[in-house]
Write a structure and sequence with these properties.
The chain is built from 5 helices and no strands. It is mainly alpha-helical and 91 residues long. The longest helix is centred in the middle third of the chain and has 14 residues. The protein is elongated, with a radius of gyration of 16 Å.
């Protein structure tokens, strides 16, 4: 709905999305099934960080954490954005 509304808003107004831009999920590299899973299971899957595996790992390293809850889901939901992780996998 937000994507559609942004495309309807006038071009000269803040928040307008150009007609030639692909849909938001396509632009950020998330499939529709992955988005639905994120929306429905967010609070049970993730406790703090979510996003590209490499970014989550960097935040954990800076904070002295050895693992992040949900890192496996990050790998699964964002496969095109992630590479193999150096962090231990959570059970």
């Amino acid at each position: 709905m937000v994507n559609w509304t942004g495309r309807v808003v006038r071009d000269d107004k803040r928040g307008a999305i150009a007609e030639d831009l692909p849909p938001i999920l396509e632009r950020i590299g998330i499939t529709r099934p992955a988005w639905l899973e994120l929306a429905k299971e967010f609070e049970t899957t993730f406790r703090s960080w979510i996003g590209q595996t490499e970014h989550v790992e960097r935040v954990c390293e800076r904070g002295g954490q050895r693992w992040a809850r949900g890192i496996r889901a990050c790998r699964r939901l964002f496969p095109q954005l992630s590479t193999l992780s150096s962090l231990p996998r959570t059970p």
